[in-house]
């Protein structure tokens, strides 16, 4: 097989997204084109001058690397002896179907808006690495999520760009005759057809439904064009296609899932379709099969924020779900009761999370703290149980190490942890060896990553036509202590907490001996005016003295921006209003790369922080009064910066190495990397949810508070 044919083959499996040696081959072949093609190898290979490629691979000695990468992927795909094969054999013929409204696998496949999607992507990648049979189910959004620009007033502008599907690693599902496969879902007034796409994610597949197909009314063709676009009617119909259409698609493809995992409430209608299929197969009533559906369903809730739980009016539910409701033999009231905390309370709107909670037996929040918060939020569903017996447990989120670890750090880990460390990420003892890394070497590696980040920020700022070019204030300072803050601009995340007292912040940033700078990135949801105001506030302040040249905003946050920031900043800042951060995963990406967390004790940090693996803002108490809480947290943030973070960072030996700082970096990696890895997370889901759901006997199935 020619080198180019091998590259084409490699480009069609998203396996490449977490194998830096492969990304390196594409980049080295033509760095400028690789960037212009948006890090998308399919587009890259289409635009590459094929005539010269074979010669070029030889001249650059890429031929050997391509050959090795190719064989390595074949070996990965054919590997019979995986953790999953040894521990989750029951899933081999009846895999997990993992439903999610978003999947963040790579910046070149824009099917995500933030942490929820990236987590789903990391879930797929890790399940593949472990050999856990799992198929992802989602929607194909041709226009994805919006691209962000800021206008002269610092106000967010949104552009939706249609991606060219032939440039994406997707294939259409076809039947035995080679005809395109479709599924159909019915609403009261229409039949909606959806085509099926496949993406290959290592050993597993992702199925994406797309309503932009012939035969659909214009309105329905556009139904799945944008992630979280449109009003409630669009939203509930998208969710019908995802949940019900998704189950149809599995059926049509001959996949009979043994477990259905609902990543958030958007896909909860899948449980109703599961019930319908069971009723049809077994000739029984909804009441009879309901328990059986629940016994194979896992439901994960991801947020305590009200806007994260879709609620719909009764008429809209009936308009959308009427035909399925009739097939289930349910009255309108019976169906609506499934989506209400108090089934007969007509004032309560139909909630997708409630459907998910009622129709599943394995229910969880995504950190210990969030487990408690979720039990308290939904205790109304179990009015006879004390709160600590509400049957909702927790499995803490983790990140896919290979996707987030800097390419340049991997060889260091190879040397100190042993070549097979990727197969032992979940083993706490593996990480003890981090302690042996020489401080000066570790610091040097960190400085290299930091320099890469500064260069990247300069490039982005030039492209934005803002500070960084000659006429404007200077770009970032390579020597200054650099804080990073990048995530969705949801108001509870308080992106402006650091700006609470501008004069005090000015003194911190503009200290000539110990300078500090901040790099921001993040999108506000198009409907979220508050979020856009937060961005504007930061951008406007950043133009004033002395903030200019010390605060920066990178537009159009995506996984690429995220990767640069979590790998190259010194401190990762997270300032949510307690207790709204369910978990938070960007800080987990940061710690892998030696970037220290400075965070409110909420979500994962409330269980991770031990006094020497990063820095904590405030305590764990909460205030009924938000203004009070903001003021206290801001005060604590400034104090921790002034008293702990800045002095430790600038305390150097004669060679410029900050030993106290490096000790924290190493301890953070050693104590946290295994725990907050997606590998550990998938093992937990497998042992505590997936295996019991397919009927295997396990020691500690997930149930609720008391067993934790
Ligand atoms: C990891 C990630 C997030 C998650 O951010 P948190 O606020 O820490 O949960 C959001 N957006 C992108 C692009 C990410 O990669």
Quick structural overview:
With 708 residues, the protein is of the alpha/beta class.
Describe this structure in words.
The N and C termini lie far apart (53 Å). The model has no long low-confidence stretch (mean pLDDT 95). It contains 27 helices and 20 strands. Strand 19, helix 24 and strand 20 (615-617) form a beta-alpha-beta unit. Helix content is 43%, strand content 13%. The protein is globular and about 80 Å long. Helix 8 (115-130) packs across helix 27 and helix 22 (559-568) packs across helix 23. The chain folds into 3 domains: 3-78, no CATH class; 83-394, Glycogen Phosphorylase B (Rossmann fold); 480-676, 3-Layer(aba) Sandwich (Rossmann fold), CATH 3.40.50. Strands 1, 2, 5, 6, 7, 8, 9, 10, 13 and 14 form a 10-stranded mixed beta sheet that branches. A 6-stranded parallel beta sheet has the order 17-16-15-18-19-20, with helices on both faces. The chain has a two-stranded antiparallel sheet with strand order 3-4. With 708 residues, the protein is an alpha/beta fold. The protein binds pyridoxal-5'-phosphate. Pyridoxal-5'-phosphate binds next to helix 8, helix 22 and helix 23.
The geometry reads as globular
Give the percentage of residues in beta strands: 5-15%
Percentage of helical residues? 40-55%
Secondary-structure-based class equals: alpha/beta
Distance between the termini: 53 Å
Q: What count of domains describes the coordinates?
A: 3
Tell me how many strands there are: 20
